[in-house]
Amino acid sequence: MRIRSSVEPVPRRVARALLHLAEKVGRREKPCLMLNLPLNREDTAAIADSTLESVSRVMSKWKCKGIIESGRRWTAIIDEDALVDLGM
């Protein structure tokens, strides 16, 4: 899966990529939506048609804001509404 337009802002593409993956392989685990696949930032960058550096900056900001949580090869969506807003 690739996000359609590389002319869209990186945060929008990353948000859409994470939401698409959540729809396909997400598992609700209170209080988050866990992506059930080993996903790292390189993978996310490829899906969002962006660079690793850009995706890392975006995801780090979101992590600080409590929108997502991530670790080595895993991602959890904490604030799904905020991510949906970013993907619009």
SS content category: alpha+beta
Give the strand tally. 4
Helix content: 40-55%
**How would a textbook summarize the main sheet?**
4 strands, antiparallel
Q: Looking at the structure, what is the overall shape? A: globular
Total of DSSP H or I helical runs spanning 4+ residues? 4
Strand order of the largest sheet: 1-2-4-3
Amino-to-carboxy terminus distance = 18 Å
- Calculate the mean pLDDT score and round it: 91
Short structural description:
The chain contains four helices and four strands, in the order H-E-E-H-H-E-E-H.
What report would you give on this structure?
There is one protein chain. The protein is an alpha+beta fold. Helix content is 50%, strand content 18%. The chain has a four-stranded antiparallel β-sheet. The chain starts with 9 loop residues before the first helix and ends with a helix. 30% of the residues are buried. The mean pLDDT is 91.
Keywords for this structure?
88 residues; four-stranded antiparallel β-sheet
Per-chain topology:
Elements: H1 10-25, E1 26-29, E2 32-35, H2 41-47, H3 52-65, E3 68-71, E4 74-77, H4 80-86
Antiparallel strand pairs: 1-2, 2-4, 3-4
Helix pairs in contact: 1-4, 2-3
